[in-house]
Design brief:
With about 140 residues, this protein is an alpha+beta fold. It has three helices and seven strands.
Length: about 140
């Protein structure tokens, strides 16, 4: 198994950053890599329980991912499982993501810990995806 950790600082309060990672309306503005939209979702990061999204790209390709929110600790962290679905709808390998908000001198830091990825290739793909997603968040939150 492979783990991935990314960090990004934002010039906002930890409470404001937490709102951007937990409020569904705000979350949908940056969820998924650049060029992706989220036409279908059951995102609710305010409480434990199931979630899912279908992301689409400009070509109409659909990417379905789902999991379970395992914890919500405002304004510090949200944890959830993550599993991609294949073209038949079968859910694949399950990994775990924790989004942690920390106060820093310049505002707040978001730490993404994505653990138990199936391979280094999968981790590399997720790193590209999360980095792109963080760029979207930075463009919205500032």
């Amino acid at each position: 198994m492979t783990d991935l950790r990314l960090e990004r600082e934002f010039p906002v309060s930890p409470e404001r950053l937490f709102a951007w990672i937990s409020d569904t309306e705000k979350l949908l503005q940056w969820w998924g890599p650049e060029g992706m939209t989220v036409p279908e979702h059951t995102l609710n990061f305010h409480q434990e329980g199931p979630w899912s999204t279908v992301m689409t790209n400009a070509d109409g390709d659909r990417y379905h991912v789902s999991g379970v929110v395992t914890h919500v600790r405002p304004p510090q962290s949200i944890g959830f499982t993550w599993g991609w679905h294949d073209e038949t709808g079968a859910r694949g390998h399950e990994s775990h993501v924790t989004l942690t908000v920390e106060a820093v001198d310049a505002g707040a830091r978001l730490v993404i810990d994505h653990r138990n990825l199936d391979s280094s290739e999968q981790a590399a793909g997720h790193q590209k995806g999360w980095e792109s997603t963080l760029r979207k968040l930075a463009s919205k939150i500032q």
